[in-house]
């Protein structure tokens, strides 16, 4: 896990060093800067495999130069294959395997590797730059491209100087609480989408992007439940095993949920040594899962560390949030994630996590909401609209956002889309261009819940969950590996009958039944709490003055496309305790902090 940088813009060494220093937390063990032809390569190394300096980057092989961020989990088998073909290796790193693999197979190496990665390889003979990002977008890849000038980096911060804000991206953020790829907060800076590679031919200054992996139309397997459970368990065993390869201490995050419990259970089974597990607890019992996690740890015989935090612990991390999440990002669970990684780093450098289980195995609360409100969508739209406008919902205490959404939305596909955002709630214009980028999901499955799960994977997973985990872990130089994000697990899960995953409101059914082989069901069958903090309450108390100062008229009037009057009414309602508008208030607060941090104001 590292930070990469590359450019053909003629910055001097001092400027390049300054750019790398701004994200030095991504790789504190070694900083490498090399120039090849007109390209300058920069690399920040967090040493995980082959700690010897021989594996520092940029790395060279004949006419090729690479900068690489991530891990190739099946690098040993690929190295054995290349060795049989006559290649010799000077290191024990996955970087060299990736580089020589590209030399032999070219872009087809992408079909062979299993990992999380973002890398660039330059061929000095052909003057062509090849770059790629992993299938699920676990690792970030930003690039600036204009008039033949390229700048590539693991984060956007080193590229922001002199750039103008993308007003459309602000609107996307206010819809979603993140900015979805390929867009970014700045004009002419983009994210390479997951499962894509990019080729730049410097001979004619052309840039092209191509997809090498995507979700495919669903084909349901003809398989019994017991066979499916066996196959999935076998697949998860391998996904965990290959993620335990490390030359530094490794542990596992352990919450009260199903996913991290299963990952930790398997890790405890296949690891050659006793594993370390880590959890965060809260002094508010509504949010605390630490006692359940401690029960898991006792059953699994792990060395467990629980950190109980209060409002003060979390609030002190807000400046860190703006520093490391260098695009506006409003998932408040990033705060406890930062604290978890801060504690974890005291013991290990690599940690397994359960991220990705909810997306593939129908675990989020909004999946239940879709099932409940699906019946509403069967009512003719004209009648639904009349009910929504009649005032009956409020009279019977049924005026939740999702019920109103179901009543007002014309089609089921639009209903699924709107679950992931509150389009138009804060904005003067309702429909945004970014959703066109995700319209393809409509043809991936005829199954209602699978459509929602697919959109979760394509929109939410990459742009929210993966961003949260990458930045929170890198902030403290921790590498997080997620077995549920193994593309083989994703593909297998999508091929299973829906009732294997979700049956009569029972979420993640098949994962629960696998977990029973490690932990008694009576222990893990608990209400889902999520990884949340009581931000909404803090806004009204400890943080009230801070929020009101940040959300002043000058700032609000500088936000493009914001319905200022609507937001100010919403803010008053929230502060007076009349309504809970935590998500929308937090979004504007985060944006205000970003404006201040990066010197952007009224456009």
List keywords for this structure.
603 residues; alpha+beta; Glutamine Phosphoribosylpyrophosphate, subunit 1, domain 1; Rossmann fold; 6-stranded antiparallel β-sheet; 27 helices; 42% helix; globular
Percentage of residues in DSSP E strands:
15-25%
CATH superfamily of the largest domain: Aminohydrolase, N-terminal nucleophile (Ntn) domain
Helix content: 40-55%
- Count of DSSP strands: 17
Structural class of the secondary structure composition?
A: alpha+beta
In CATH, what is the class of the largest domain?
Answer: Alpha Beta
Strand order of the largest sheet: 2-3-1-9-8-10
Give the CA-based shape: globular
Radius of gyration over alpha carbons?
24 Å
Q: How many individual helices?
A: 27
What does this structure look like?
There is one protein chain. The protein is of the alpha+beta class. The protein folds into four domains: 2-211, Glutamine Phosphoribosylpyrophosphate, subunit 1, domain 1 (4-Layer Sandwich), CATH 3.60.20; 225-362 and 461-524, Rossmann fold; 365-452, no CATH class; 535-598, no CATH class. 42% of the residues lie in helices and 16% in strands. It is built from 27 helices and 17 strands. The strands form three sheets. Strands 2-3-1-9-8-10 form a six-stranded antiparallel beta sheet, with helices on one face. Strands 4-5-6-7-11-12 form a six-stranded antiparallel beta sheet, covered by helices on one side. A five-stranded parallel beta sheet has the order 15-14-13-16-17, sandwiched between helices. Helix 6 packs across helix 7 (258-270) and helix 13 (365-377) packs antiparallel against helix 17. The longest helix is centred in the last third of the chain and has 27 residues, at 448-474.
């Amino acid at each position: 896990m590292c930070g990469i940088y590359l450019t053909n813009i003629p910055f001097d060494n001092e400027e390049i060093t300054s750019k790398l220093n701004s994200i030095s937390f991504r790789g504190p063990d070694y900083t490498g800067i090399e120039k090849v032809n007109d390209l300058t390569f920069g690399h920040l190394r967090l040493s995980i495999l082959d700690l010897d300096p021989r594996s520092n980057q940029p790395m060279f092989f004949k006419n090729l130069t690479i900068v690489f961020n991530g891990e190739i989990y099946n690098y040993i088998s690929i190295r054995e294959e290349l060795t049989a073909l006559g290649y010799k290796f000077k290191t024990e790193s996955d970087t060299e395997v990736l580089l020589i693999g590209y030399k032999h197979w070219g872009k087809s190496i992408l079909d062979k590797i299993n990992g999380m990665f973002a890398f660039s390889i330059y061929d000095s003979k052909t003057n062509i730059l090849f770059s790629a990002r992993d299938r699920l977008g676990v690792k970030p890849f930003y690039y600036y491209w204009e008039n033949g000038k390229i700048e590539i980096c693991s984060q956007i911060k080193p590229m922001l100087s002199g750039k103008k804000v993308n007003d459309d991206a602000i609107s996307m953020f206010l819809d979603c609480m993140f900015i979805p790829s390929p867009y970014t907060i700045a004009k002419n800076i983009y994210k390479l989408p997951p499962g894509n590679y990019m080729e730049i031919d410097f001979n004619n200054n052309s840039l092209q992007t191509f997809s090498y992996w995507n979700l495919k139309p669903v084909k349901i397997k003809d398989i019994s439940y017991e066979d499916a459970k066996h196959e999935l368990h076998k697949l998860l065993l391998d996904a965990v095993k290959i993620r335990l390869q490390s030359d530094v201490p490794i542990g596992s995050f352990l919450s009260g949920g199903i996913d991290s419990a299963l990952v930790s259970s398997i890790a405890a089974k296949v690891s050659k040594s006793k594993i370390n597990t880590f959890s965060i607890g809260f002094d508010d019992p509504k949010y605390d899962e630490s006692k359940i996690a401690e029960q898991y740890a006792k059953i699994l015989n792990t060395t467990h560390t629980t950190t109980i935090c209060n409002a003060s612990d979390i609030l002190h991390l807000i400046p860190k949030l703006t520093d490391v999440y260098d695009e506006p990002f409003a998932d408040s669970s990033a705060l406890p994630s930062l604290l978890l990684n801060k504690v974890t780093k005291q013991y290990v450098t690599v940690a397994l996590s359960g991220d990705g289980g909810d997306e593939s195995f129908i675990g989020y609360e909004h999946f239940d909401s879709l099932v409940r409100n699906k019946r509403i969508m069967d009512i003719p739209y004209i009648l639904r609209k009349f009910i929504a406008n009649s005032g009956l919902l409020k009279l019977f205490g049924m005026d939740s956002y999702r019920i109103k959404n179901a009543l007002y939305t014309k089609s089921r596909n639009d209903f699924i889309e709107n679950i992931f955002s509150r389009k138009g709630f804060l904005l003067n214009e309702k429909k945004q261009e970014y959703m066109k980028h995700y319209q393809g999901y409509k043809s991936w499955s005829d199954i209602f819940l699978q459509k929602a799960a697919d959109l979760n994977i394509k929109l939410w997973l990459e742009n929210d969950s993966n961003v949260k985990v990458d930045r929170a872990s890198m902030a403290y130089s921790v590498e997080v590996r997620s077995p549920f994000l193994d593309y083989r697990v994703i593909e297998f899960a999508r091929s299973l009958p829906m009732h294997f995953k979700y049956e009569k409101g029972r979420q993640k059914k098949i994962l629960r039944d696998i977990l029973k082989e490690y932990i008694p069901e009576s222990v893990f069958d608990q209400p889902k709490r999520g990884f949340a903090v009581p931000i909404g309450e803090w806004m009204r108390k400890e943080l009230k003055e801070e929020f009101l100062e940040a959300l002043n008229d000058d700032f609000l009037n500088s936000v493009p496309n914001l319905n200022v009057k609507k937001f100010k009414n919403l803010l008053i309602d929230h502060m007076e305790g009349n309504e809970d508008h935590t998500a929308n208030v937090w979004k504007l607060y985060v944006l205000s902090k970003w404006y201040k941090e990066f010197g952007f104001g009224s456009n």
